[in-house]
Design goal:
12 helices; Aspartate Aminotransferase, domain 1; 387 residues; Alanine--glyoxylate aminotransferase; PyrdxlP-dep_Trfase_small; aminotransferase; SP_NH2Trfase/AEP_transaminase; alpha/beta; binds glyoxylic acid; alanine-glyoxylate transaminase activity; 40% helix; Aspartate Aminotransferase, domain 2
Length: 387
């Protein structure tokens, strides 16, 4: 009848898989494709909790933390960001955001939305988006604003910069602030030492240098952060409540409490990524990303292609922001790279929108062979699209 909805025609579609060289999503480890098809596991079984234990051990390794409060959120990297901010910044408290790109802007949006209901205040300090912060600037802002927490992006995929945070934990703690760090596009590709650097809360994502699917977001919390979570008076949104999720993930070994239904293929995939990373080891992965990205930059230099970030030591070893020459349209450029070379790169976002093309030599694609292919294709595209 006119009231029913007829079945739609859902046809099989062909998809030409491009070489994934944007800022993410990255190509999977071949073993991850198989892992996604592993059996359904359910929260009543030991198999299920063994998988969670394996993931937590792997995450302690990749974050370099001995903390027990380590788990993965059911969601994209943004769920990690929401969790870190909502669980650690209480009503009426202040979050200082160190702003240089698009992701810290998201932190500001999240904190401001919470602030409408509970009075969280946001303070912002910024630098030009093709540079990074000095410790002096961050310390003087901590002194001025006296926040309960500071948010900073370690590697920033919108600008292609890497922020030095080695001493930042100590500086934050000196002023009574927790240090919250976004490692979405940097973890696995760049050295990160949570405990040694005094990071209090960190989140990442699996579709970047992990070389897995998007949709599960690793997070970890320090002892200081854990104490704050356990003693807090406020209740964050139920779905991202770390206190409850710690019980679901059996972080302390004595709870196996149902919270929400976890997605088995994502658990298998993350576990598989971690197995691959453990096999390679972090130092080897960091070195592979450093050498393939340095080689990529050298190849671009040979073609006189300019980079958005002027100082080599501030360039991120996973995602490069390549200057889009004057007069070029980024969509046309993107489409040409895809159609002619079957390479997927992405437009600039946030501060680099319309100004740069973002290229990821990252995860399983962090190799000199891929760097060569992309550098040659970029040079060809610049030549071909010259007006
Ligand atoms: C998305 O994650 C991006 O870097 O654009």
């Amino acid at each position: 009848s006119a009231k029913t909805v007829p079945p739609p025609l859902i046809l099989d579609r062909k998809f030409v898989v491009p070489l994934l060289c944007g800022p993410g999503p990255c190509a999977y480890w071949p073993s991850v494709t198989e892992a996604l098809a592993k059996p359904v596991i359910t929260p009543n079984c030991d198999e299920f909790y063994n998988v969670l234990d394996d993931i937590r051990a792997g995450l302690q390794y990749v974050f370099q933390t001995k903390s027990k409060l380590v788990l993965a959120m059911s969601g994209a990297g943004h769920s990690g960001m929401e969790a870190v901010i909502s669980n650690l910044v209480a009503p009426g408290e202040t979050l200082l955001v160190a702003s240089r790109g698009m992701w810290d802007q998201r932190a500001i949006i999240i904190a401001n939305r919470l602030g409408k209901y509970n009075g969280i205040k946001t303070e912002i300090t910024s630098v030009p988006s093709n540079t990074t912060f000095s410790m002096e600037q961050l310390e003087s802002e901590l002194k001025r604003t006296r926040p309960e927490a500071m948010f900073i992006t370690f590697g920033d995929s919108s600008t292609g910069t890497i922020q030095n945070i080695e001493r930042l934990g100590d500086i934050c703690h000196k002023y009574g602030a927790l240090l919250l760090v976004d490692t979405v596009v940097s973890l696995i590709g760049v050295e990160f030492l949570m405990d040694e650097w005094g990071v209090d809360a960190v989140f990442s994502a699996t579709q970047k240098a992990f070389s897995g699917p998007a949709g599960i977001a690793p997070v970890a919390f320090s002892a200081l952060a854990e104490e704050k979570i356990n003693n807090r008076k406020h209740e964050p949104s139920f779905y991202i409540d770390i206190k409850l999720l710690a019980n679901q993930w059996n972080c302390y070994g004595d709870t196996r409490t149902y919270h929400h239904t976890l997605c088995p293929p994502m658990l298998w995939a993350l576990r598989c990524c971690l197995q691959e990373i453990v096999k390679e080891t972090l130092p080897v992965s960091w070195a592979r990303h450093a050498s393939s990205t340095a080689y990529f930059h050298q190849r671009l230099q040979e073609y006189s292609i300019e980079l958005f970030v002027p100082k080599p030591e501030e360039r991120l070893n996973t995602v490069t922001t390549v200057m889009l020459p004057e007069g070029y349209n980024h969509l046309e450029f993107h489409n040409y790279m895809r159609e002619k070379h079957n390479i997927l790169v992405l437009e600039g976002r946030g501060p680099t929108l319309g100004k740069a093309i973002r290229v990821g030599i990252m995860g399983v694609n962090a190799t000199k062979e891929v760097a060569d292919k992309v550098a040659d294709a970029l040079a060809d595209s610049i030549q071909a699209l010259r007006k």
